[in-house]
């Protein structure tokens, strides 16, 4: 079935349609929520990826899930560039490592470097070439119409951040590992991938299976009591 094609709706009238989702029972909600909490608690950021191939459709479906995220004025200000070409991945890695070396050699500052040390990160980014796919997420700062005119987008950072969170969730629940990589600055990504002037790189997300010898930092997440404030 062909997916509907979105067109901008600036100035269009409000045309509501019915929304009647199936309402689960309380027991069903409790079971679903507990299972989702359990599964998501196993999610970890992975930096050591297997080179084994993954089904592309799984990644495409995860991106489709991300694209259902809410966005300011429903303008959906995101572009997901799926990179599987080894040559392009190598060029991205080389450019990213060049920026990372400058950062780790002093641009980050000691306070930031101190915060990173427990994570075991450095300027070498093998995940950018080992992972079967890279999803490069771009935020559309404004919309470019066919005549070259521009239209402002709203809450772009918030909208794209929510979409990336949903992408990571979908990938994890599909059995894949991922990493949110944000080399700084990231201008080279738009240049390498030929993106238009209204798009700004937001994150690079390697996707694949963890390597057989993969390790992760021995970290503890904040408990629910540490992140929750109840107002009753």
UniProtKB/TrEMBL annotation:
It holds the Pfam family Nitroreductase. Residues 42-209 form the Nitroreductase domain. The keyword Ion transport does not apply. Residues 1-28 are annotated as: Disordered. Keywords: Flavoprotein, FMN, Oxidoreductase. InterPro entries: Nitroreductase (IPR029479), Nitroreductase-like (IPR000415), Nitroreductase/BluB (IPR050627). This is Nitroreductase.
